[in-house]
Amino acid sequence: MLLEVKDLRMYYEVGDGGFVKAVDGVSFNLDREEALGIVGESGCGKSSLAITILRILPSNARILGGEVLLDGVDILRLDEPRLRKEVRWRKISMVFQGSMNALNPIIKVGDQIAEAIMLHEKVSKKDAYRRAEELLSLVGIDPSRVSSYPFELSGGQRQRVMIAMALALNPKVLIADEPTTALDVIVQAQTLKLIKELQSRLKLSLMLISHDISVVAEMSDKVAVMYAGKIVEYGPAVEVLLQPKHPYTTALLKSVPSIRESKRKLAYIPGVPPNLVNPPSGCRFHPRCPYAMDICREKEPNLKEVGEHHLAACHLYR
Questions:
Q1: Cα of 277 vs its chain's centroid, Å
Q2: Which listed CATH number (1.10.150.120, 3.90.1150.10, 3.40.50.300, 3.30.200.20) goes with 3-91+171-312?
Q3: φ, ψ for residue 128 (rounded to 5)?
């Protein structure tokens, strides 16, 4: 196993002394060359999970428990210099959502890629720039664009630059956080195809974060469904997406248009996601669940096996 996350808890401290329970007891694993899709509504904790793994957290974030094992080493226990030198970019890197916000608008893209290389390796600026050109070529951009500023590139090109930066030091794990945000459908398809090709060519393990369940279905070997800071269903993509067990997963799938069932009426999930400062007792989905029982309001369900390697946190399965 390449990456194992065990009972990870990260809360944001808020002004009145409370905590936003953004990542609350999350566990999953990622094998070598495997693609894991993490899906859920906006605000469910997907991006918070990613930045917790890399420990690139805002000042009010608190990691309160759990382990993140990379090749058997708990990277949450590493000091900051060692984490920066040995893990970030070298072993785990991230493609951030919103490429225009993630790139510095007044620095040429070649300088931004080269800076990452020079900070981690003892190479000259000339060699770093040459590698930046190779990386741009790898992601399908003319190497001459190393001299371009981010605002001179299209949205799709900026996203490819972000992917090139993430691959600068040949990481083992690539975290792609909403890589198709703000892109039109044609560019979305091109970006996803590129990520899939690079994963295969470079033998990457991929952690794909999205609120779009169709994107996750196309790209993933395994799927983890998040709701209100917790994983509520987890397993092989085929099992989770074709035979969902948790009512939340079922509702998500029913809200996606189907080509095969063109006359099917789209469903929606009533209500809104809960306030994570004071989440509901028991199952956090019970206020919106059509199958809620008394036990759902009183006792939090644990992930339990509902199929081969297929887990769901629901009292419907006892």
A1: 22
A2: 3.40.50.300
A3: -65, -40
Q: Is 83 helix (H, G, I), strand (E, B) or coil?
A: helix
- How far apart, in Å, are the Cα atoms of 152 and each of 96, 105, 145, 148, 156? 19, 9, 9, 6, 12
Q: Using one digit for the tens of pLDDT, what is the confidence trace for 93-137?
A: 999 887 778 899 999 999 999 998 998 888 999 999 999 999 999
pLDDT digits (tens, 9 = 90+) for 233-266: 999 999 999 999 999 999 999 888 777 766 778 8
DSSP conformation letters of 97-110? S-HHHHS-TTS-HH
Query: Which token pair is 84?
Result: 């920066």
Mean pLDDT of 301-309: 93
Domain spans of the chain?
3-91+171-312
Long-range contacts of 284-289 (CB under 8 A, 24+ apart): 284/227, 284/228, 284/229, 284/230, 285/227, 285/228, 285/232, 285/246, 285/247, 285/248, 288/248, 289/247, 289/248
Q: Where are the alpha helices (DSSP H) in 142-279?
A: 155-166, 185-202, 213-219, 237-242, 247-254
Find tokens 């936003």 and name the residue: 20
CA 69 to chain centre: 17
Average pLDDT on 201-227 reads 93
pLDDT, residue 262, reads: 67
- Look at residue 67 and tell me whether its pLDDT is greater than 70: yes
175, 94 in Cβ contact below 8 A? yes
Asked if the model's pLDDT at residue 302 lies above 80, the reply is yes
